[in-house]
Amino acid sequence: MATPSAAGAGRARGSGLPPRQDAGGILPTVSLAGAAHLPYKIAWKLHLPLDGAVRFSEPHAMRTDVFAYGITPGQRMVLVDDEITTGRTLADLTCRLREAGAVPLAAVCLVEDTTRGARDLLTGLDLPLVSLTTIEGTA
Questions:
Q1: Longest pairwise C-alpha distance within the chain
Q2: What is d(CA 36, CA 65) in angstroms, rounded to the nearest whole number?
Q3: Which position has the higher pLDDT, 2 or 92?
Q4: What percent of the chain is helix, strand and coil (3-state, nearest 5)?
Q5: Which residue of 15, 73, 79, 98 shows the fewest CB atoms closer than 10 Å?
């Protein structure tokens, strides 16, 4: 699913694989974490009174607020999702995680739509993107 460099990035001490939200990202996250023997976290569209909460936005969704929990300063992580189109959700998550002191190392996805600028946006945030496959064409 991921290149060796992305999988290896998550092997650093104290690292985990917190992905994005909804059911679409759960299967690739659990699969990658299981293959790498690493813990993982799932982000939810449910606000709970839990420690280490980080709120971020999924701008294209009907319910835009998403929450990741148990985020701690210095925690290294690889962000996982099923698909990336504009990159705005992962960009916002990356900024919010960094504000909380966490260290996003890279993003991994099953499918990247190369027509909407996600890679450039994430590269501008110094977040490498590894895609299993791409959809190419004109926007």
A1: 44
A2: 29
A3: 92
A4: 30, 30, 45
A5: 73
For residues 91 and 62, the answer to whether their CB atoms sit within 8 Å is no
SS3 12: coil
Instruction: Quote the pTM value.
Output: 0.80
| Exposure string for 60-84, b = 16+ CB within 10 A, e = fewer | eeeeeebbbbebeeebbbbbbbbbb
Q: Are 54 and 68 in contact (CB under 8 A)?
A: yes
For 33, phi then psi, to 5°, come to: -65, -40
Instruction: Tell me which residue of 18, 40, 19 sits closest to 83, measured CA to CA.
Output: 19
Pairing of strands 15-16, 76-84: parallel
Q: How confident is the model at residue 139 (pLDDT cuts 50, 70, 90)?
A: low
Q: pLDDT confidence of 85, banded at 50, 70, 90? A: very high
